[in-house]
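Dear support,

We are seeing what looks like truncated structure output for some complexes. This example has two components. We would appreciate it if you could run it in full and send us the complete token output so we can diff it against ours.
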Amino acid sequence: MSNQTLLKMEEIEKNFNGCPVLKKVNFEVESGEVHALMGENGAGKSTLIKILTGIYPKDGGRIIFDGEEVHINNRSDAIKLGIGVIYQELSLIPTLTVVQNIMLGKEKEKFGFVQSKKMREEVIELINKYNFGIKPDAIVETLTIAQRQTVEILKALSEKSKLIIMDEPTASLSSKESEALFKIIEQLKEQGVSIIYISHRLEEVYRLSDRLTVLRDGVREALLNREEINPSDVIRLMIGKDLSESTASNNLRVANTPVKLKVVNLEKKGVFKNISFELHEGEILGFAGLVGAGRTEVMRCIYGADPIDSGTVTLDGKELPRSIGKNIELGFGLVPEDRRNQGFTPLLSIEKNVALTNYDTLAVGGFVKEQKEKTLGNKMVDALGIRPNNSQIPVGNLSGGNQQKAVLAKWLSRDLKVLIIDEPTAGIDVGAKDEIYKIIESIAKNGASVIMVSSDLQELLRVSQRIIVMRKGEIFTEFSSGKITQEDILMAESGILTKEAENNEQ
Amino acid sequence: MNSKKIDFKKILSKSQKLWILLIVMLILTILQPGVFLTAANMKSILLSISIYGIMVCGTIFPILLGGIDLSVGAVAAAAGAFAVVQIVKSNYSTSGVIIGVLGGLLLGVFVGLIHGIIVSKFDVPAFLITLASQNIVYGVAQLLTKNNVIPCMEPASFAFLGGGRLFGIPFSIIIMLTIAIISYVLLNKTVLGRNVYAVGGNAEACRLSGVKSKKIIILSYITSGFTAAMAGIVLASMNRQAIAKAAQGYDNYVLTALVVGGASLMGGEGSIIGAIWGAFLVGVISNGLRLIGVTSDYHGIVKCIVIVAAVAFDAHIRHKNSGLQKSNFFFKKGKKLAKEGGSL
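Here is the complete output from our reference environment:
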């Protein structure tokens, strides 16, 4: 590793609506190093990267790239400098070939004609240089996700990138595919390309990174060299020791109420397997895990939204039909992860969104009882404290927290037995979070059972009575007694059982 | 986010359409003094509108779902042809009228059913399948009429549909109003209508809320096919003849009437009242062109240019007036930022 500094971000500041998100953050990357950037959700990683790639303007500080101060005002400024990003959601055009995708926007022309041959040669040269096993003429949609990622990397390299940012690159890869990616990263390093590696997967970070920066609440908490990196220290730095203690959960327990929902050996090939657990009446069961662990997929299958390959789900001892409509009649509800695309109809009012799940009681002979509909809408707006206090407002015009309350209202207005809530507070401000937690707690108090999938550890510890940790499509462990901390969950998500967790297992 | 403000904006954007219509009518009144603004001419406009009017009331269903139905003109022609052929075959008997009309309507329902099944179960884009069936059904109309004009002046019961009067009001207008009222009730007062708007606004959210979207889609295309057939039968009665080209170009006029009337081609937005307004505008423009003496060869061109201008004007005003939309955009963006900020 050379010791030349490639990127230096000095005292970067950023505020959103007056809230500081980055507070004088320093961050630097040397040529040919893999630098891991870690931190919990909301720590400021994403904001820092977006400033570096020209998506957000910075409010203060300097960026020095390759020895010169630079001003990155948009994405193409970043590309010109040689800063490439591999996004979580890949940005390739599926119907074009590898060559066409790589050369997109920089096609070689002569007299207005595209020089396919020259472009192809250029891409082949690039593939050979890095020794990537990619066929230049393959159509991108026929490639696996891992191969597509390689194409993205090639695209970044063809733009003469000196720095490539990888954001959770292994989230949707199998372990074999991840290995291949790690090899590519090694090769890139040898060629002097620097990499900013963002991942929640601790084991990958230990394995790959030369240095590691930990962000917490918009502040650089630590800069560690390879030999200083140690799993539990990093986790402690990410969470903050004091906080970890104060948000520890003391009252994990198995509810003594009867079992409501029983899942046995649920499997969807290639996605998850051996999923078995029980949910008691009036219980809040947390589901922890990293992005891509299969939590959302399991929930959708239990709910009947996606087909399964094998296994059974029973409610009160009776096997569930594989139909959303029938499950809803039996008392199921789902608050989906992707609120905007799956949770509500944005153009329709709160009242009509709530009514959508309630026409069995709000209509007679196919005709809607409008007065009843209105009364129910108003009742739910009042009960959940939706602001503004008007059930006629389109849900699309509400704030994130109030949108989530409107989605919850769709189910709370029914006689609910089991409610599955996927990432209840994603993208919701702190005040509204608290209200949502109170709503979830009251659902359980009223006798319904709740499954809460969450990536927010504080949330899991605060709300759940038991926590199941999923990892790579399987249940890794369950915390059902005693005291656990964020650290225990984070470790388990990465496949490490802490002492507490081991005790817990027995 | 003041609710009063939202209502105000809604009223503003609604009256926009009224203004456009009034301006067009004013221009025509000035250009053709004593001809355009007469009771006789208004009646003639209403008569021609009744056909589009019947069609838009059904075709709005697939549009609200974010789909489309390009086959309505062909379905109208085929249904009209079927009815007339039956009547002629039955020697102009009343039973022939009943069989012909019911059979024609059934033909529309059948085509709609096929559309609905193909769109919902096989995920074929509505644009594609209804464009294909436009040609297929047009072919059926040609086969039924053997590419001839089939006159049908009798019996009185059939002529009444398009040419009769009830309490002095043309019967076709009564049919249009009846269908408009039924459609209005269906869309606004029934679970089916609520679900049409909801599925058009967000199909996946509806599926996860237990809405049977496939059923909704199939019923919507059936409605569209039914009203197209109804319009075609009334048209045949009005013209006292069946001809395969009877409703050529109506697909476009119906679509423009809907879009001018405020329906979004993305689905989820639109109303019967708006759709009838749109049909009115299309009717007034056609009538005005004829009065001014533009030969029919140019009608299509001028109509479409005027319509594009009207839609562009409407979109422009809506955009300009939408302090709401703008703040909404930033609002969404802000939330998106917050969400992305939390995802890393």
